[in-house]
Amino acid sequence: MSDSQATAVQGEAHNPALLHHFVTEEQQRDASSLGMWIFLATEVMFFGGLFCAYLIYRGWYFGDFGAASKSIDALLGGTNTAVLICSSLTVVLAIWGAQTARRGLMIGSLILTMLFGLAFLGIKGKEYKDKFDEHHVPGVSFSFEHVPIPGHPDQYANPRHAEIFFALYFIMTGLHALHMVIGLGIFTWLLVMAWKGRFTPQYHTPLEVGGLYWHFVDIVWIYLFPLLYLIDRHP
Amino acid sequence: MSDHSKSSPLPTYFMVWGALLLGTFLTYEAAKIDLGVFNAALALIIATTKALLVALFFMHLKGASEKLLKLVVISTVFFLLILLALSMADYGTRVWS
């Protein structure tokens, strides 16, 4: 027992991944993960401001937001939610593969994660194209005339108020999509590192930190989906 | 975290994955039923449950021992709630027209 512990300690001391200003690998890993969580705290406030703007305008232009939301294909949004959830599963599988020295599982899961991420962006692109075709993009060609308000078939939504919904829709999903693109960049780098054999059961902190980022982007989408796609869906 | 990885976490991961997919299906179906003001409440409850599942099990907050990490996570939620609650308290109690 003490023998194996001694070997473990010696193994740690010789690990080239352990930087000299950290005492143990665990301390180094905790520091990296804490840094990522602090970054995610700033991200929460960043998206939080947009969610706050959404809540205020949803309160003011309640019916107009319902009418505008109903024009978006909720099935595409729902599919994208499922795609992101699957990508979050493959992220934890990749980390587990690194922890248990299963190289094939780690690399396969990383590739699957990126494919899910690309599928998400593809579906998002189809959704955006529909909105462009329907002239629902805020700007000079915006048009949202004679669309009834859900629950009030005799009233039409105010196009100016619906335009604010679409502005929030494009800013929030666009910013989220930008995070997905950055996430794909991070995972390309992780895949290269994994391919080169840099990750071992002792050292795979970049996978864990990159995973934290990916899961956070997933959580943002978990809130965006019901707030943008699923309001006033009932007939 | 490494203490727990001795027993395989895979069943937990797959159960959380299933629960997240189920939550997505539920929130999609629940939106089609007219519940009045409770539509939004139910959607947010399901979303928060899903977010908690991701944070606790996929982001490994469950079993995290570092106090500093807990402090960061709790203050994140706290400041987000200040942002939302105080803004809504302001706009919700104004008479605009």
General description of the model:
- The complex is a heterodimer of chains A (about 240) and B (about 100).
- Chain A is built from seven helices and two strands.
- Chain A has helices at about 1-15, 25-60, 60-70, 75-100, 105-135, 160-195, 205-230, and strands at about 150, 150-155.
- Chain B folds into two domains: about 1-65; about 65-95.
- Chain B has helices spanning about 10-30, 40-60, 65-90.
- The chains are: A mainly alpha (about 240), B mainly alpha (about 100).
- At the A-B interface, helix 2, helix 4 and helix 7 of A face helix 1, helix 2 and helix 3 of B.
Summarize the entry for a quick read.
Chain A has helices spanning 2-13, 25-60, 62-70, 74-99, 103-133, 159-195, 205-229, and strands at residues 148-149, 152-156. With 235 residues, chain A is mainly alpha-helical.
Topology of chain A as a string of helices (H) and strands (E): HHHHHEEHH
Q: What structural class results from the helix and strand content of chain A?
A: mainly alpha
Q: Work out the helix count of chain B.
A: 3
| CATH H-level superfamily title of chain A | Cytochrome c oxidase, subunit III, four-helix bundle
Into which percentage range does the β-strand content of chain A fall? under 5%
Categorize the overall geometry of chain A.
elongated
Task: Please state how the strands of the largest beta sheet of chain A are arranged side by side.
Answer: 1-2
Quaternary structure of the protein: heterodimer
| Rg of chain B, Å, rounded | 18 Å
> What name does CATH use for the topology of chain A?
Four Helix Bundle (Hemerythrin (Met), subunit A)
Secondary structure tally, helices of chain A: 7
Strand content of chain B: under 5%
The CATH class of chain A is Mainly Alpha
Overall pLDDT level of chain B: 89
